[in-house]
């Protein structure tokens, strides 16, 4: 990707120098909340969690600043993530202006190992996630190596797709989609709730594609980048992950969609650049 020298976002919160993470409730302890399972391979995607006045808090975590030590790779990933985030801001700012609203950009929080969020205690084993309660994206930059070494989804464009997907969940929050899905899931059995989660995740993939449509026009992508993004979408398909982990698939437990579905909706957003084409709730 041609990202060097491009404008970066100011909405970066670097908490990699903080320690701790205990005290707050973990993902599994959020009573009455539907947790959307493994989106980025390992653990929990918080896109389905909605904080309310009586619900979630940051807990009693005490974080202490420590001297930040980062590798050359980490420094580059911070810069890269900032550029990608800024690019998503431009795309979604334009869309929200079009519909007569102002886009409220999310914060991208960098952390290591674990962190307190408005949705509970996040852990790096969960992969990147978005929390609607504080409208922040969370990522442990070590996930880049996980994608490369364990998922077979290498490259800058693959990492950009992951970031754009989480930004897609923020857009869903601003538009009220996540809140509607959460309310509906409360009156469903697990199988039905999972099906709604799949639709939510595929829409976030489509939104990532919408961003990629304009990023490609703006010259951000080089030859082979789109293929990297499609490969990443394939790598995090439920069927692919389950087959890889246990040798068989259990379709009714899918929460993010198959590899084919994820690629399909990413491609739809990429080809059209039109958020109106991302209604996964009316067409599957």
From TrEMBL:
It is a single-pass membrane protein. Keywords: Membrane, Transmembrane, Transmembrane helix. InterPro entries: Uncharacterised_pept_Zn_put. Residues 1-21 are annotated as: Disordered. The chain crosses the membrane at residues 26-44. It is found in: Membrane. This is Neutral zinc metallopeptidase. It comes from Kingella pumchi. The lineage of its organism: Bacteria, Pseudomonadati, Pseudomonadota, Betaproteobacteria, Neisseriales.
């Amino acid at each position: 990707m041609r990202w060097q020298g491009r404008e970066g976002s100011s909405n970066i919160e670097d908490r990699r120098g903080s320690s701790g993470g205990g005290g707050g409730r973990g993902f599994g302890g959020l009573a009455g909340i539907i947790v959307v399972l493994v989106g980025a391979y390992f653990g929990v995607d918080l896109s389905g969690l909605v904080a309310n006045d009586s619900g979630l808090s940051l807990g009693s975590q005490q974080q202490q600043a420590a001297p930040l030590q980062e590798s050359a790779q980490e420094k580059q990933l911070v810069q890269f993530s900032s550029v990608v985030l800024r690019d998503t801001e431009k795309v979604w700012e334009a869309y929200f202006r079009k519909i007569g609203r102002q886009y409220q950009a999310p914060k991208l929080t960098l952390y290591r190992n674990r962190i307190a969020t408005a949705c509970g205690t996040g852990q790096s084993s969960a992969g990147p996630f978005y929390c609607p309660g504080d409208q922040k994206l969370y990522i442990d930059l070590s996930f880049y190596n996980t994608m490369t070494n364990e998922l077979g989804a290498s490259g800058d464009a693959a990492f950009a797709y992951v970031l754009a997907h989480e930004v897609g969940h923020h857009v869903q929050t601003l538009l009220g989609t996540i809140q509607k899905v959460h309310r509906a899931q409360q009156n469903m059995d697990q199988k039905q709730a999972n099906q709604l989660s799949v639709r939510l995740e595929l829409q976030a993939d489509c939104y990532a594609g919408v961003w990629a449509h304009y990023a490609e026009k703006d010259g951000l992508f080089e030859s082979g980048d789109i293929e990297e993004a499609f490969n990443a979408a394939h790598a995090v398909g439920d069927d692919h992950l389950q087959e890889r982990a246990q040798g068989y698939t259990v379709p009714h437990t899918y929460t993010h969609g198959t590899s084919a579905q994820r690629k399909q909706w990413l491609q739809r957003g990429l080809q059209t650049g039109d958020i109106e084409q991302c209604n996964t709730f009316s067409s599957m």
